[in-house]
């Protein structure tokens, strides 16, 4: 089979960008592991009692692009703001 392959395309994007383009492919092929429409994020990361934000055709406007800085990503992942006084300015300390 490898001798028949002529082209390989690798698409690397943020999950959000990928979902905008290909996330709904499950509706065409149920075997694809993609979004279902039941997924939700909260306006306060990690706080399920805050306002839920759904995506899809019924979504309300939310800031279209989350921050890309280390501190912004830290807050998106952990739900708490990155604190320089605790971690210092060296983000690698988080992984030690």
Automatic annotation (TrEMBL):
InterPro entries: Alkaline_phosphatase_core_sf (IPR017850), Phosphoesterase (IPR007312). Pfam families: Phosphoesterase. GO terms for biological process: phosphate-containing compound metabolic process. Keywords: Hydrolase. GO terms for molecular function: hydrolase activity, acting on ester bonds. This is Non-specific phospholipase C4.
